[in-house]
Specification:
- The structure is a single chain.
- The protein is an alpha/beta fold and 460 residues long.
- It has 2 domains: 8-213 and 378-458, 4-Layer Sandwich (Metallo-beta-lactamase, Chain A); 219-365, Rossmann fold.
- Helix content is 25%, strand content 23%.
- It starts with 7 loop residues before the first strand and ends with a strand.
- Pfam families: Lactamase_B, RMMBL, RNase_J_b_CASP.
- This is Ribonuclease J.
- InterPro entries: Metallo-B-lactamas (IPR001279), RibonucZ/Hydroxyglut_hydro (IPR036866), RMMBL (IPR011108), RNase_J_2 (IPR042173), RNase_J_b_CASP (IPR055132).
Length: 460
């Protein structure tokens, strides 16, 4: 199956019909372009896009099976990574040996990627090309332009993919945040200019398509977090997604204001902060202490930021809840703040974690019961989707990055916003954009690979 010079195709291998492990292909003139290469983490009892149920004992790291494109890697022109979240970049060290193509991405994402590749002794084998926002690169028959968007991680980018027969706007993960605090912002003109040029299809994030209104700005969280930390008497532990550098800046400023010392607990937090420093995205006023010093400080002077907001085992917060973290032990009267919401499927794990914390006498504050906002999603709600469609004016909307309910709702929003046609499908469907729009259902077999005992194994 090879696209000819008149074809423009979109073929998702992962991330369409599910949230996570994004892996997308664009086809034109005999060549393929890959966008994103991410992982997911199994949730026992969860039903996958193809109806398969996840079970206990599966590999802890999973990713889309790239067999289709690995068999055609001589036609793969390159891999573009839109941003540094695990579900977009995490599978690269596992799958690159099957792909062996150059990788194009932004500076911060490249910093994260290099750290991952070094662990697999691939750092000096993988060609990484850093691209500035606004720049274009010719990658085979595809001219790809990096466009500034805002998200819950530094330097996220949308893509304008231009070919001789048509143009596709690939949103990546995004929201419309006027005060993202870290990294670049966005400009409506970026997207209205695309409409003037002409966009044949918009492949767009569906994660929060079922939520009304507009997402909360990252800057709006300071008041809620300050109130919760200022009134706490013992140690304060905040758990959030490790990639949210803006959240760390907010917490560091609050630490200074409340007379607390801030330390990071968890490998992903330490890696992300290191990458932010290397990419020039870390405020030099934000001083961190070594986590091993936390246990020696008066309890009222401690602000720790910990991984484990989703109840994952072996993370820093989980170890604190069971009393086996090497740096310190939580005591009655300490406070744990969940500056995150549950990813669907993780509710039971989080509930169990909160139960263990409360059994220690720890005060727990969640995003649901805080009086002021203490968490902001990185994805667009309905008002933001409507705005983006009115700016870009694509001929076709292709919802991705969501489960069936999210994508169906997203398609309805697109049509209500003036888009003539919405095409919804799932991994393995071939979306034909040129010459004649349409979908060929389940044109290829898709599935998952897992990493187990230092090798890839097929899971689903």
């Amino acid at each position: 199956m090879t696209p000819d010079q008149n074809d423009l195709w979109f073929l998702p291998l992962g991330g369409t019909g599910e949230i996570g492990m994004n892996l997308n292909l664009y086809g034109h003139d005999g060549r393929w372009l890959m966008v994103d290469c991410g992982v997911t983490f199994p949730r026992p009892g969860r039903i996958a896009a193809d109806g398969t149920v996840h079970h206990h004992g599966e590999p802890s790291v999973q990713m889309a099976d790239p067999a289709f494109i690995a068999d055609r890697r001589d036609r793969l022109t390159g891999l573009v990574i839109t941003h540094a979240h695990e579900d977009h970049v995490g599978a690269v060290p596992y799958l690159w040996p099957l792909l062996q193509c150059p990788i194009y991405t932004s500076r911060f994402t490249a910093e994260i990627l290099r750290r991952k590749l070094a662990e697999f002794e691939l750092l000096h084998r993988v060609p990484i090309i850093e691209v500035e926002t606004g720049q274009s690169r010719q990658i085979g028959p595809f001219s790809v332009q990096w466009l500034a968007v805002t998200h819950s991680i530094p330097d996220p980018n949308a893509l304008m993919i231009r070919t001789s027969v048509g143009n596709i706007f690939h949103s990546g993960d995004w929201k419309l945040d006027k005060q993202p605090l870290v990294g670049h912002g966005y400009s409506p003109k970026t997207f209205t200019d695309l409409a003037e040029e002409g966009v044949d299809a918009m492949v767009c994030d569906s994660t929060n398509a079922t939520l009304s209104g507009h997402s909360v700005s990252e800057a709006a969280l300071r008041a809620g977090l300050l109130k919760a930390i200022k009134t706490a008497e013992g140690r304060v532990v905040v758990t959030c997604f490790g990639s949210n550098i803006a959240r760390l800046h907010t917490l560091a400023a609050i630490a200074r204001e409340t007379g607390r010392y801030m330390g990071l607990l968890g490998r992903s937090l330490i890696n992300m902060s290191g990458a932010a420093k290397a990419a020039g995205l870390w405020d030099t006023a934000d001083q961190l202490i070594n986590s091993s010093h936390i246990g020696y400080l008066p309890r009222s002077e401690v602000l720790a930021v910990a991984t484990g907001s989703q109840g994952e085992p072996r993370t820093a917060l989980s170890r604190l809840a069971t009393g086996n973290h090497p740096d310190f032990e939580l005591e009655a009267g300490d406070t744990v703040i969940f500056s995150a919401r549950a990813i669907p499927g993780n509710e039971d794990a989080i509930k169990g974690l909160i139960g263990r914390l409360k059994a220690l006498g720890v005060i727990v504050i969640t995003a649901e019961d805080a009086g002021l906002p203490i968490h902001a999603s990185g994805h667009p709600a309905q008002e933001e989707l409507e705005l983006m469609y009115r700016w870009v004016k694509p001929a076709i909307a292709i919802p991705v990055h969501g489960e069936a309910e999210h994508m169906e709702t997203h398609g309805n929003i697109a049509r209500a916003s003036g888009v003539p046609r919405a095409m919804t499908g799932r991994n393995g469907d071939l979306f034909m954009i040129r010459p004649v729009p349409g979908i060929r259902r389940q044109i290829i077999e898709t599935g998952r690979l897992g990493w187990e005992k230092q090798e890839l194994v097929r899971v689903l």
